[in-house]
């Protein structure tokens, strides 16, 4: 850099930064997803599950889970030189839902992670974003011991609008997660364009 300009003579690019939420039920893989793709060490607010929380933390199907997010996960990924995503993972349990309104402020959209073994656990997140007209995609986290279903079948089971994308992914795999995030950004842009057209017609 020379006097604020790059060596090839072009001014430095000021990237567009976008906020994306990662939501879904307890134990669906939100923390894993943020950690898999973040180019910085992700901020995590996890606490160990205790006996006191057993009556309210349903661990059926995720018996190996020993920690839970109590505030949020945070990570960052640069998709292009001029596009940076900030990822905010929401807490999954109902007792922490009061934080969702604050986390969703200014968000471009959301990825709702789903586990086909506990599909009903993402209903609340789907309902939340639908009610607030926040665009979202479904990311089906394909756990190794979970049955695989076509994306359109998952969409029907969740009673989604036909234009809501359902994307299969592995929350542990960086490239798989990047594809979901790119799909989220594309869907949010199309959603915003549709709303602008609706206003002007």
Offer a concise description of the structure.
The chain is an alpha/beta fold and 201 residues long. Helices cover 28% and strands 23% of the residues. It is built from 5 helices and 8 strands.
Beta fraction = 15-25%
Total strand count, please?
8
Total of helices: 5
Main structural class: alpha/beta
Segments where pLDDT lies below 50 for 5+ residues?
1-5
Task: Name the shape in a single word.
Answer: globular
CA radius of gyration is 18 Å
Spatial strand arrangement across the major sheet: 4-5-1-6-7-8
Order of helices and strands: EHEEEEHEHEHEH
Can you give the helix content as a percent range?
A: 25-40%
How many angstroms does the end-to-end distance come to?
47 Å
Major beta sheet, specifics? 6 strands, mixed
Residue-averaged pLDDT? 85
Q: What would you note in describing this structure?
A:
With 201 residues, this protein is α/β, with parallel strands linked by helices. It has five helices and eight strands. The protein has helices at residues 30-37, 100-104, 123-131, 151-157, 174-200, and strands at residues 16-24, 46-48, 67-69, 73-80, 83-89, 109-114, 136-141, 166-169. The strands form two sheets. The protein has a six-stranded mixed β-sheet with strand order 4-5-1-6-7-8, sandwiched between helices. The longest helix has 27 residues, at 174-200. 32% of the residues are buried. Residues 1-5 have low confidence and may be disordered.
């Amino acid at each position: 850099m020379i006097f604020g300009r790059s060596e090839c003579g072009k001014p430095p690019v000021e990237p567009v930064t976008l906020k994306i939420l990662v939501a879904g039920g307890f134990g669906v893989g939100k923390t894993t997803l943020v950690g898999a793709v973040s180019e910085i060490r992700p901020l995590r607010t996890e606490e160990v599950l205790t006996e006191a929380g057993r009556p309210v933390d349903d661990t059926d199907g995720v018996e190996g889970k020993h920690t839970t997010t109590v505030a949020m996960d945070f990570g960052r990924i640069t998709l292009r030189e001029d596009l940076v995503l900030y990822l905010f993972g929401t807490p999954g349990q109902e007792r922490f839902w009061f934080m969702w309104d604050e986390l969703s402020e200014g968000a471009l959209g959301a990825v709702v992670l789903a586990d086909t073994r506990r599909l009903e656990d993402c209903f609340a997140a789907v309902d939340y974003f639908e009610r607030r007209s926040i665009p979202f995609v479904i990311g089906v986290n394909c756990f190794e011991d979970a049955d695989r279903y076509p994306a359109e079948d998952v969409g029907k089971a969740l009673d989604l609008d036909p234009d809501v994308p359902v994307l299969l992914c592995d929350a542990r795999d960086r490239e798989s997660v990047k594809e979901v995030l790119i799909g989220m950004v594309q869907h949010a842009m199309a959603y915003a364009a549709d709303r602008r057209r609706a206003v002007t017609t």
